Sequence to fold (600 residues):
Amino acid sequence: MTLRRTILLFALAWTVAITLLHGALNLKLFSPKPKSGAEVGRIGFLPVTCHLTCPVTDFINKQNEGSIFEPVRFNSWPELKEAYLSGYTKATFILAPMAIALREQGVPIKVVYLGHRDGSAVVVHKDSNIHRMQDLRGKRIAVPNRYSNQRLLFFRALKQAGMKPEDVELIEMPPPDMPAALYAKSVDAISSGEPFMGQTELDGYGRVLWLTKDVWPNFISCVLAVSEEAIENDREWVQELVNGIARSGKWLDHDMDNRMDAAKFVSRNYYNQNPRLLEFVLSKPPDRVKYTDLVPLKPDFEEIEQLGVESGILEGTAHFEDYVDPSFAAEANRLSAYDWKEDKE
Amino acid sequence: MNRAGKILLPLAVTVVALVGWHVGVRLVKSDLFPTPMDVVRGIIELAQAGLLLKYIVASLFRVTWGFGLAVVIGIPLGLVLGWYSRFYTALNPLIQILRPISPIAWIPLAILWFGVTDAAPIFLIFLASVFPITVASCAAVHNMQPVYVRAARNFGLGTLELFQQVIFRACLPQILTGLRIALGIAWLVVVAAEMIAVNSGLGYLIIDARNAGKRYDLVVAGMVMIGVIGLGLDCLVRQLEKFDEVRWGYASNAR
Fold:
């Protein structure tokens, strides 16, 4: 056979075969699918406890009447943000200051509900001699993103300890890389959403310097934000979404059994993590992260705005009324927790 | 070297490297960094979960389409650039500006244009491989012996026939070398391309394992699979060099 025929035949056969295989194995083109994400609306989230209500809502809905959205897991903040900007995700869990900054830059985004309260920590290596805030002078500290509330949290903690931002070196690092960085002692302290902080404790090389609830009670890091277009054209869907998030938040805080169930099904089906991790951070201590009391309130956001301006990430041109639409939260908050229990054989 | 030696020698070096890796991990006493056996167990775990095949297929699918588009566009573009000096003068600076930009830098734009679909990583792989192919094809025309073209002109060939029958064939050996390099690059960027939140692929496996806590065995398992498949792809492309149409272009002792 000549070269040309061999190549053409091989290339054709290969392309068809690999495309069909990919379609069958990964895209599930040949098996019936309930509804594609484009129809029901996609929601972006990261595998952190701050966004836990997203997979919990999806899971419980699927067991009951069917999911009202398709959760799309991202691995870092920039990609999550870009997918929202491109319109691929209709709503997204996002850092509160990042949502405010996007609003300042003219992006039609509205915060409709909070993701959680508390649920963050500052962790140092257990062999280090850092025991109080003052010991961090001149040290290198990893935060997830310049728009992360962990960075603002640090500014606040520095102020409380009578220190200046220049006293520490803050660097940006994706949360999944933080445990290894702390283990290798390439940073002196790390701070991000759970479960990456709990992981260092569980693996025996991390020591909590302080939990968020100690420095900034009722700390908010992530919020649920939707596009203004969805609010105008699809109010019902947004309300249903916020209702689901609110009800699963209450379900999570209802009792420890629910939390342990959530740790299992979320780890297995959504986060692809060891369930022990989520079990640990959802229970030790139980108020490490909270999922109730999640209506967006003006004073909370004013404080974030002010810290954001002080730390140089916000202009201070967008205010609560510009970037929050609290109308959905009020109704959602009146609903009770999901009445759902996992069947245990 | 005899046939057995060609297999035994690299095998022995690989075994020594694996033993060195194992001993290294043991000496450092790291419980984060996996030993070769941990990695093998990780690969078996993935295979049993049915994920290994899925991920390999997904990555090969993206590389096939990205690289395939790059071949279809890159070779004709390179030949035209090499033949018409006006095109070359006009386009070469632009190509040289775009060429050194890493696919990672294109990720934000890829997401904005294509969303989080397969099209985004395919686009990144296309970008990474189209320039080496274009440049190799263009250089092949520049290096071509003018006597082929003069002879063809004497036979009265039209422009299209000239490209098909003479220029392309004369350049084929050099183009193939370019393709081999480009395929290596296409496979190399699969990790970066799959950093976009697609939910399958060997690159995704690596990123996903970082999320999963202390699963660095799976990170290295992804790396090993990418390496082994890369070796397979290279062997496949080298088979092309056995054809007469290509073989004349290589010195007889080159292989």
